[in-house]
Amino acid sequence: MKHIIKSFDTYVVHELRWLEVPLAKFAIFVIYFWFGLLKLLGVSPAGPLVETLFQKTLEGFIAFPVFYMAFALFEMVIGILFLVPKLERVAILLIAFHLVMIVLPLFLLPHITWQSFLAPTLEGQYIIKNILIAAAAVVVGSKLTPFGKKQH
């Protein structure tokens, strides 16, 4: 019985290693493309949060509808770039910039993102879950071949 469990465990771990990067890339694509598309179509539940943050930070520099459409397209591009071989580095750079931007409401809009100390609102949870997206992007980045090195 112990041999069967060990063999099964070895098989599962092998399959997970084969799936980790494609699954992480696909998950990032789905989230970014889908959520960006919802914004582009004007049906994103995050719209009011984005608009409130915009009013606090960028109002007067650009019109909100223009910003919102550009932001939606930016998210969709990030998703697409994770699926294009050799563009993962660009996608990771863009995702890092995006993640910094979308964490801002935790600090600039605490009345919307926190109900009490260490107890986020639904909007706060929506933002905090991005730790998972960052982790998936790290997995993808960790598997890239460094510049100047040959792939095995």
Description of the structure:
- The chain has one domain.
- The model has no long low-confidence stretch (mean pLDDT 94).
- Helix content is 74%, strand content 3%.
- α1 (2-40) crosses α7, α3 (64-81) crosses α4 (88-108) and α4 packs antiparallel against α7 (130-142).
- It is mainly alpha-helical and 152 residues long.
- It is built from seven helices and two strands.
- It has helices at residues 2-40, 47-57, 64-81, 88-108, 110-113, 122-128, 130-142; strands at residues 114-116, 119-120.
- The protein has a two-stranded antiparallel ribbon.
List the helices and strands and how they pair.
Elements: H1 2-40, H2 47-57, H3 64-81, H4 88-108, H5 110-113, E1 114-116, E2 119-120, H6 122-128, H7 130-142
Antiparallel strand pairs: 1-2
Helix pairs in contact: 1-3, 1-7, 3-4, 4-7
Compact overview of the structure:
The chain is mainly alpha-helical. Helix content is about 75%, strand content about 5%.
Supply the key terms.
mainly alpha, two-stranded antiparallel ribbon, 2 strands, 152 residues
Overall helicity? over 70%
Distance between the termini: 37 Å
Q: Could you spell the SSE succession in H and E letters? A: HHHHHEEHH
Oligomer: single chain
Largest sheet: 2 strands, antiparallel
Please, what is the average pLDDT?
94
List how many beta strands DSSP finds: 2
Count of domain modules: 1
Give the neighbour order of strands across the main sheet. 1-2
From the alpha carbons, calculate the radius of gyration and give it in angstroms.
Answer: 19 Å
Residue fraction in strands? under 5%
Helix tally equals 7
Shape: globular
Poorly predicted sequence stretches spanning 5 or more consecutive residues = none
Helix/strand/pairing category: mainly alpha
